[in-house]
Design goal:
GO terms for molecular function: lyase activity. The protein is about 25% helix and about 30% strand. By secondary structure, it is α/β, with parallel strands linked by helices. Strands 2-1-3-4-14-13-12-9 form an eight-stranded mixed β-sheet. Strands 6-5-7-11 form a four-stranded mixed β-sheet, with helices on one face. A two-stranded antiparallel sheet has the order 8-10. A hairpin with a 2-residue loop joins strand 12 and strand 13. The longest helix has 13 residues, at about 200-210.
Length: about 210
């Protein structure tokens, strides 16, 4: 069995692959070869940087149609990470507005620049560092992960899913309750970086490797 980390030129590919190798004996490959992607048992869609560039590179490498087809057919488990989560929504405010893959109804919005904490201190954007996650409903990827566990984030934009049934985890940052874990059928996607989130992040990856939707 093989886990394919989709290489379209954007994302923390090697760190994600190393974290996966730490939790499984399955073969982990970083690839943009459509045959290897289609032949894999599980897929990881990472993402890092501006969403316009991520969507553009997915199209330039001619992998967008393949990813769309896999999402539509729900052929195998897929995990989206960071901008890999955001790309699964319909549209992002970033870069003046970017149309995304549209698998999940909803949008990606920028954190307000004027947010303040409970002590009236201005909150920084990007939201960067450890933050508490509120599990909104059960999911196999939460197995062994405590409610209110902390995960590591780096993002200036956040997901707002249109359907609450798709929301599996939220994080409060200032006035925003961001939808940082969303799922549907055999697709699950997170805003945080599991490969940088210590024990909880590795457990989520371990759960993904054993997940049978």
């Amino acid at each position: 069995m093989t886990i394919a980390v989709i290489d379209y030129g954007m994302g923390n590919l090697h760190s994600v692959a190393k974290a996966l190798e730490h939790v499984t004996h399955e073969n982990v490959v970083i690839t943009r070869d459509p045959r290897r992607i289609l032949g894999a048992t599980r897929l990881v869609l990472p993402g890092q940087g501006a969403i316009r560039d991520c969507v553009g590179e997915l199209e330039r490498t001619e992998l967008r149609g393949l990813v769309d087809d896999i999402l539509t057919r729900q052929a195998k488990p897929l995990l989206g990470i960071c901008v890999g989560q955001q790309m699964l929504l319909e549209r992002s405010e970033e870069n003046g507005g970017v149309d995304c893959l549209g698998f999940f109804p909803g949008n990606v919005n920028r954190f307000p620049a004027t947010m303040r904490d409970q002590h009236d201190q201005r909150l920084k954007v990007p939201h960067m560092g450890w933050n508490l996650l509120e599990q909104q409903q059960p999911h196999p990827l939460w197995d062994g992960i405590d409610q209110h566990e902390h995960f590591y984030f780096v993002h200036s934009y956040y997901v707002e899913a249109a359907d609450d049934a798709h929301v599996f985890g939220t994080t409060q940052y200032g006035s925003v309750n961001a939808h940082v874990a969303i799922g549907r059928d055999s697709t699950f996607a997170v805003q945080f970086h599991p490969e940088k989130s210590a024990r909880a992040g590795l457990r989520l990856l371990e759960n993904f490797v054993s997940w049978t939707p």
